[in-house]
Amino acid sequence: RRPPRATLFPYTTLFRSQARRIKGSGDYFAGGRGFNRFLMMMHALGTGTHADDPVGVVGASFQRGFSGIWYTFVYLFCTPFYWLIAPFFRRSRMLTTSDFFETRFSKRLGLLYTVMGSLTFTVNIGTMLKGTGTVAAAVTQGVIPEWLAVVVMAVIFVAYGTAGGLIATVVTESVQGLLIVVMSLLLVPFGLMHVGGFAGLHNLLDGSKFSLATPEELSIAWIIAATIASLIGIVAQPHTMEVCSTGKTEWEGRVGFTYGNFIKRLCALGWAVTGVIVLAMVAQGTLPELAHREDAFGTAIRVLLPSGFTGLMLAAILAAQMSTQIGRASCRERV
């Protein structure tokens, strides 16, 4: 007897269960504005965190020391302002940021923003997929080539996001947000054991590697300028509207946007420590010198973790990437 279709295609049931919850454009694009605080926090964390974040921060910390954390910490001083910003998005009752520009200014400006948002997400999604491919290839030592990881991830997030809209995105991120935290912190204890703890780091590395600013790349002036630009630019990001405005009330959007991003700041601490640990292992002679600093994250996963934990880390990375890709793809459809 032929098995039912759901058995042959297990993901079909999942896609259909999400798609059945969509009754109109408000459900598809805004989730019916019915998400609670936990879901909004995980949504903000998942949408704002992707595989190229740890790749970039770990790589910069490997080359420059702890100052590499500023590649994501430029939003640190902006995060308290999210508490004030989020309610205004909820009060606008707009589905997309382009709707706001069209209503507040003109259809031409709304069209211009739509073009800008589409181009922005095209570049962002391409960068994220490239980050996924880089990590997968480094962890598997080329067994999974970059192009294969990119293709598989693209097929998954397009299919799932198209089927369930924002509801599918937030449901996915409620689980994957926890995996993002695991991904960010798992390498630290294993790495510290290899280098003799924090005391070993100080013995192996020059004191300048523990500075939060370096004149070569991440100077005080760069940090100040990037922080100001980030505060101005965050309100114009296409995905900010739905991250702030799809909760049950203004309170859900405020708590979700602020505290979801605070969790990401904590994750960034793990990324920076991991980069410095890899640098210490090179100084110790445990690792050879890396050709590119972007290889530091994948190398740390391969060298530091036991085989079972390596699989968990790779799953966490792919989960973090899928949650962000679904969110950004869904936003692009709204734009």
SS-based class: mainly alpha
* Separate helix tally: 17
The gross shape turns out to be globular
Spatial gap, N to C terminus: 47 Å
Helix-strand string: HHHHHHHHHHHHHHHHH
Radius of gyration: 21 Å
Q: Please state roughly what percent of the residues sit in beta strands, choosing from under 5%, 5-15%, 15-25%, 25-35%, 35-45% or over 45%.
A: under 5%
Oligomer: single chain
Q: In terms of per-residue confidence, which ranges show pLDDT below 50 for 5 or more consecutive residues?
A: 1-11, 329-334
Record field, number of beta strands: 0
Query: Major beta sheet, specifics?
Result: none
Helical proportion, percent range: over 70%
Provide structural commentary.
The protein is mostly helical and about 325 residues long. It is about 75% helix and about 0% strand. It contains 17 helices and no strands. Helix 4 packs across helix 10 and helix 4 crosses helix 17. The chain is globular.
